[in-house]
Amino acid sequence: MPPGAASGDSDRPGPPQAVPGPVAGHGSVTGSAVPARVVFTPAANALLRRLREAFGPLIFHLSGGCCEGTAPMCFRRSDFRVGPGDVLLGLLDGSPFYVGAAQFRYWAYCQVTVDVTTGGGDSFSLEAADGVRFTAHARLFTDREAAALDAAGPPPTGPEAVQAAGVADR
After folding, report:
1. Under a CB-based contact definition with an 8 Å cutoff, are residues 37 and 112 in contact?
2. Range picked from 13-17, 35-39, 103-107 for highest mean pLDDT
3. Does the structure show a pLDDT above 90 at 123?
4. Mean residue pLDDT across the chain
5. Which residue has the higher pLDDT, 125 or 165?
6. What string of DSSP letters covers the chain?
7. 34-77+87-153 architecture in CATH?
8. Residue boundaries of the structural domains of the chain
9. What is residue 168's predicted lDDT score, i.e. its pLDDT?
C-alpha cells in the first residue's frame, strides 16, 4: 500500500467528492463505470476554491518527493511545469491533479482521497501560509474497478493532457 494509504472507514466529515474529468467516471466495462482516480473531501474542495479565488488557476502535483513526501502540492498553474511523463489523475473544478511518472506505478490501482489537516510545517504548497496542508490517503481499487481502469486504457500524460481535455485557465 502506498504511503498515506488508509483502509476501512474514515472519521473525516462528509463523503469525498469524485473529480470529474477525462479520466474519471466515464465509460463502462460490463456495466461498471470507470472509477475516479482522485477524490476530494468537502474540506479540500472548499480550500481549493478559496485558493483559486486568491491565486487564480491552480494545479496539484503528488510527486513523492523528499520534503513533503506524498503530500499533494498546490501551485499556481503558471508556476509549475508539468513533465512529459506526469500522469493526469483527474480534475477538480478545472484544476488538474498530476502524479509523477515514477510514483504512478504505486498509485495506479489506488483511489487517492485528498483532505486537509492543520499544521504540517514548512511547504512550498500555497495552502501552507494558512497553517493547513493537503493530505493524501489511498484505498486499493476493487478487482472490478481495476478491470474497468485497465479496459479504459492508461490515463493521459504530460501538459497536453489538460489542453486535450479543454480545460481553460480558470
Report:
1. yes
2. 35-39
3. no
4. 79
5. 125
6. --TTB--S---SSS--EE--BTTBS--EETTEEPPPSEEE-HHHHHHHHHHHHHHSSEEEEE--BTTTBTPPEEEEGGG----TT-EEEEEETTEEEEE-HHHHHHHTTEEEEEEEEE-----SSGGGGGTEEEEEEEEEPPHHHHHHHHHH-PPPBSTHHHHHTT----
7. Sandwich (2.60)
8. 34-77+87-153
9. 61
